[in-house]
């Protein structure tokens, strides 16, 4: 094994003063090596070697031209490696192989662009302005409203401190780049000891977590598994574990169907280099290029695989009905059999019936959750299940040629295991963290991969090289200090929200410190870090191994006593019945009793965000983490609009499906308006509905920014040149083949819609009394058909006078301003300042002088510039940025306030308040604004500001000398807050029913304002009259 190599030393100006000169490659008998042996501290020798390595001309060695090396240049110097004493003759090719050991698999790209420098400069300027502003505020007290001044000072200091905590990490953001070519050369290249090029990459266990199949479609889970099985990683080193916390037979059989389709999908991806490797995403690509395809049979293979995929989708969609029918059939047989046995024994027909079970395809009871839950077969009470869906692959590649031509393609599939941990009502399940810990223990027995990648059910592998990208960080120098690699999250769909500011700005900033936080999915963990071990210390590493960038514990020669490159010669043992039985025991509900699982080992319990707390625990132990951004995205999440779920509602309860009901109501109103405008009878209601849907799909919507639904679906912009007024009189041309020369060339019709099957209009022929389709049409949009007198009427302007059809004008949206969540230094006290208008004209400052306004202008201006730079970094539109600002203010006044309240109650009174995650709520009113006590504070703030604005305007109008400038300064803060809280008001208005929370919030805000007003009533004789 090659132990170490000292670099070429043509430039020796960096050597130690006491070190001898080196004129070439290092030889064991040279003065250089004798000097190294005389060194008492190996660390100093190591530092000297690294300094020598930095001066080595690696670029010329790796990328030198033919003239530089010569056509047949060979380096004939003998080299004695000082660790093993092995002699070798190096050619140019072997020199590159040696140099590859010293190359790093990834590099850190510092953000030294002009944007970063400007960002740092603006942060410094704003810090200075805030310091001067706070000093000025302390020196200038408002003696008339000292309580208001004190509250505003506390708020300003607190939010200045929080802003500093948020901005200081952004001073050193990092961007990292990986080199997959170097990774392949270092760990998968063919060498003298490894002629076949077997991979030395470590094993990875991929965890896919899901719980409730009713809310999480099995079709999405199957596509996620297919993308993992097709990932570009050594097959024998990859294992996939699916955690079904709900114990559903539907999920189990969906995975079985996915395995059946994977036999053709995975080799197809390997043969043609398919990207992405999620079949649903791949076949839904709007534009797919067939150029540069190596295999000529790609088109035929793709057509065959697509047909197989459609059949796979049909089977997945029919699984629920199939399971229900099968269970009914087996249940009927079981009941008949049991009834006969009881009649033979008891002699009568007992009325007692057995529980209705859920049956598997082999005619046995499903040990998990039944469709009709019964004792020991519910989501919170069922037995543990482990099923090996795909056995561990063989060590050697396996080639095949059926059903497609896979002659030279490896058709092996990674190991796939279905796991459903045991649950019992007497034990706490610890939600997702408990399921993850069960997978950690089960995988340690069955595959024991050194690294673990956890994914949610809807996060699929979009970049097949993503696993290798993560390994670049783990396998490079210093990689043994990393506990996890966090990949960026990316959502796709009409209702997707990438939260790019958090991932592209904050996560990069944290990467410049100890590392980013763990967000719960798309995270590659080191197994020993999850076990609670501390990171290895530098003194525990051998000098040679450290030079090669590998930790001693992971080095193949140390673990297996063999040279690198033949690690795969030890095949993985097959999983037998005893191994599965042992794995079943570790996923039992009682296994964690009196252990440190969930406290110091595995995922941490006791928090809704257990993933983030687990990352904090690792960082506190000394581990580091990195943030990985790949091109294209490593993983993508399916937004809620992708995937269709069939769900029925109760009759006469349209509120159960609020989003669909509102859309249906919109279509109905459009239909009524179109028919009423032209006086059409009800027999045309179907045509009117069809036309209303046709038009709504070609109208802009706020759900899809800058796109219409038609453009989002088809990928092309819709045309509006062919649109006509519904119900108008039109004249359709009669073809020459159907008329003589003296006949009329057109016939009178009524325009009733558009044809999607052909490029034509749908017309109602008044003579034939039926709908026809025609292309050549002349429309008179000011004419309509009088059905009572059967004649055409001309109306230039049609006005509806029915009061019941009048539409109330909608409330315009509040104007967008330029706030930021960090800028709450100023608007935070706006609640108090706006309420102060109810008093004697009091404000947070005695007077609105030039100094106060100047500070305010500088702080706001720098804030706006910082926000612009953040949006430029993350590449988002202003609308998305503004939505993010609203989210932070609403969350700060609701969820964050609830968290602080929970902390105080727990620390002072010992009261523990438990919160249920939103993804576990089974709410029948999806899409509606739901009731919660956390909304009391935002609604109270909103009402208080509205009342303050009204009272302030009223006082200014009735004042003898109106002070409009002072009113404008105070009211601007209130409008700023209301603009942020606009989504709350919109949710309350669209609900269209009264809320108890609104009542309490209104009473609370009115009570507080009246109390403040009562405390500040001027004394008699002061000369101020109350109105």
Automatic annotation (TrEMBL):
The lineage of its organism: Eukaryota, Viridiplantae, Streptophyta, Embryophyta, Tracheophyta. One of its GO terms (molecular function) is cellulose synthase (UDP-forming) activity. Residues 534-717 form the Integrase catalytic domain. Residues 814-834 have a biased composition (Low complexity). It is a multi-pass membrane protein. Residues 801-834 are annotated as: Disordered. Signal peptide: none annotated. Keywords: Cell wall biogenesis/degradation, Glycosyltransferase, Membrane, Transferase, Transmembrane, Transmembrane helix. This is Integrase catalytic domain-containing protein. Pfam families: Cellulose_synt, SH3_retrovirus. PROSITE patterns: INTEGRASE (PS50994). The keyword Cell wall biogenesis/degradation applies. It is found in: Endomembrane system. One of its GO terms (cellular component) is membrane. Mn(2+) binds at residues 432, 456. InterPro entries: Cellulose_synth, Integrase_cat-core, Nucleotide-diphossugar_trans, RNaseH-like_sf, RNaseH_sf, SH3_retrovirus. It comes from the Eukaryota. UDP-alpha-D-glucose binds at residues 209, 245. The chain crosses the membrane at residues 81-104, 116-134, 146-165, 843-866, 887-916, 936-955, 997-1017. One of its GO terms (biological process) is DNA integration.
């Amino acid at each position: 094994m090659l132990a170490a190599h000292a670099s070429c030393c043509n430039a020796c100006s960096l050597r130690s003063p006491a070190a001898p000169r080196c004129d070439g490659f290092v030889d064991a008998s040279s003065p250089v090596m004798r000097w190294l042996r005389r060194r008492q501290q190996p660390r100093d020798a190591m530092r000297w070697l690294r300094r020598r390595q930095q001066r080595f001309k690696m670029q010329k060695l790796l990328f030198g031209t033919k003239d530089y090396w010569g056509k047949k240049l060979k380096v004939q110097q003998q080299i004695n490696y000082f660790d093993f004493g092995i002699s070798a003759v190096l050619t140019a090719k072997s020199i590159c192989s040696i140099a590859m050991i010293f190359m790093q698999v990834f590099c850190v790209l510092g953000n030294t662009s002009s944007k970063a420098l400007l960002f740092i400069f603006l942060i410094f300027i704003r810090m200075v302005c805030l310091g001067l502003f706070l000093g000025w505020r302390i020196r200038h007290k408002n003696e008339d409203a000292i309580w208001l001044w004190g509250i505003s000072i506390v708020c300003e200091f607190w939010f200045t401190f929080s802003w500093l905590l948020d901005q200081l990490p952004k001073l050193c953001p990092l961007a990292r780049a990986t080199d997959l070519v170097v990774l392949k050369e270092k760990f998968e290249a063919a060498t003298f000891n490894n002629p076949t090029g077997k991979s030395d990459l470590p094993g990875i266990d991929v965890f896919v977590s899901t719980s409730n199949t009713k809310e999480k479609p099995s079709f999405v889970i199957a596509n996620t598994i297919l993308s993992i099985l097709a990932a570009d990683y050594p097959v024998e080193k990859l294992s996939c574990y699916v955690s079904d916390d709900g114990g559903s037979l539907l999920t189990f059989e969906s995975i079985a169907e996915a395995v059946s389709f994977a036999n053709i999908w995975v080799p197809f991806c390997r043969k043609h280099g398919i990207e992405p490797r999620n079949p649903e995403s791949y076949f839904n690509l709007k534009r797919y290029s067939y150029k540069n395809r190596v295999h000529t049979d790609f088109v035929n293979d793709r057509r065959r695989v697509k047909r197989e995929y459609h059949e796979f989708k049909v089977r997945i969609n029919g699984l629920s009905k199939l399971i229900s029918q099968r269970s009914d059939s087996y249940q009927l047989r079981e009941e008949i059999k049991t009834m006969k046995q009881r009649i033979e024994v008891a002699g009568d027909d007992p009325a007692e019936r057995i529980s209705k079970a859920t049956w598997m395809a082999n005619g046995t009871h499903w040990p998990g959750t039944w469709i009709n839950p019964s004792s020991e077969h519910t989501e919170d009470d069922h037995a543990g299940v482990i099923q090996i869906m795909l056995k561990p692959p063989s060590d050697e590649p396996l080639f095949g040629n059926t059903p497609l031509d896979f002659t030279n393609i490896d058709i092996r599939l990674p190991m796939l295991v279905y796991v459903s941990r045991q649950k019992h009502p007497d034990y706490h399940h610890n939600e997702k963290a408990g399921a993850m810990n069960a997978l950690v223990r089960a995988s340690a027995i069955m595959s024991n991969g050194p690294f673990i990648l956890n994914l949610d059910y809807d996060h699929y592998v979009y970049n097949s090289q993503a696993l290798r990208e993560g390994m670049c960080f783990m396998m490079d120098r210093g990689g043994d200090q990393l506990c996890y690699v966090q990949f960026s999250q990316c959502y796709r769909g009409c209702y997707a929200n990438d939260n790019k500011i958090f991932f592209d700005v904050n996560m990069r900033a944290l990467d410049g410190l100890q590392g980013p936080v763990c967000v719960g999915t798309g995270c590659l963990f080191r197994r020993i870090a999850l076990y609670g071990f501390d990171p290895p210390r530098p003194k525990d590493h051998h000098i040679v191994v450290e030079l090669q960038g590998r930790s001693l514990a992971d080095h193949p020669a140390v673990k297996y006593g063999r040279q690198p490159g033949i690690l795969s010669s030890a095949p993985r043992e097959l999983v037998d019945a005893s191994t599965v039985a042992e794995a079943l025991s570790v996923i039992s509900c009682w296994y964690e009793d009196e252990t440190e699982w969930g406290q110091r080992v595995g995922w941490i319990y006791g928090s809704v965000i257990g993933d983030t707390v687990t990352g904090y625990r690792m960082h506190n132990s000394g581990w580091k983490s990195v943030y990985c951004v790949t091109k294209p995205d490593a993983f993508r999440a399916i937004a809620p609009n992708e995937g269709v779920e069939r769900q029925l509602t109760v009759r006469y309860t349209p509120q159960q499906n609020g989003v669909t009901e509102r859309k249906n109501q919109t279509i109905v109103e459009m239909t009524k308006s179109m028919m009423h405008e032209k006086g059409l009878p009800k027999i045309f209601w179907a045509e009117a509905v069809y036309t209303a849907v046709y038009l709504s799909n070609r109208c802009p919507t706020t759900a899809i920014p800058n796109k219409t639904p038609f453009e989002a679906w088809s990928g092309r912009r819709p045309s509006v040149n062919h649109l006509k007024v519904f119900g108008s009189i039109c004249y359709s041309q009669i073809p020459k083949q159907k008329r003589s020369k003296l006949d009329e060339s057109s016939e009178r019709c009524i325009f009733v819609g558009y044809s999607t099957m052909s490029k034509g209009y749908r017309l109602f022929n008044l003579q034939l009394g039926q709908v026809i389709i025609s292309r050549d049409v002349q429309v008179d949009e000011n004419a309509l058909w009088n059905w009572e007198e059967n004649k055409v009427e001309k109306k230039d302007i049609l006005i509806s006078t029915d009061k019941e059809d009048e539409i109330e004008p909608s409330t315009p949206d509040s104007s967008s301003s330029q706030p930021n969540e960090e800028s709450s230094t100023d608007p935070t006290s706006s609640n108090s300042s706006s309420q102060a208008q109810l008093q004697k004209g009091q404000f947070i400052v005695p007077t609105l002088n030039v100094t106060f306004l100047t500070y305010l202008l500088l702080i706001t201006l720098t804030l706006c510039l910082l926000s612009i730079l953040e949006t430029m970094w993350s590449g988002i539109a202003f609308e998305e940025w503004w939505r993010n600002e609203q989210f932070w203010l609403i969350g700060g006044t609701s969820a964050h306030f609830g968290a602080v309240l929970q902390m105080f109650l727990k620390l002072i009174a010992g009261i523990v308040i438990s919160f249920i995650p939103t993804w576990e709520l089974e709410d029948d009113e999806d899409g509606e604004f739901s009731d919660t006590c956390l909304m009391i504070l935002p609604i109270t703030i909103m009402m208080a500001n509205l009342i303050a604005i009204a009272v302030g305007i009223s006082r200014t109008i009735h004042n003898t000398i109106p002070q409009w400038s002072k009113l404008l300064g105070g009211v601007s803060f209130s409008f700023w807050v209301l603009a942020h809280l606009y989504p709350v008001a919109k949710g309350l208005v669209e609900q269209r029913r009264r809320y108890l929370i609104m009542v309490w919030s209104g009473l609370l805000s009115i009570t507080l304002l009246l109390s403040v007003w009562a405390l500040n009533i001027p004394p008699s004789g002061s000369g101020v009259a109350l109105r």
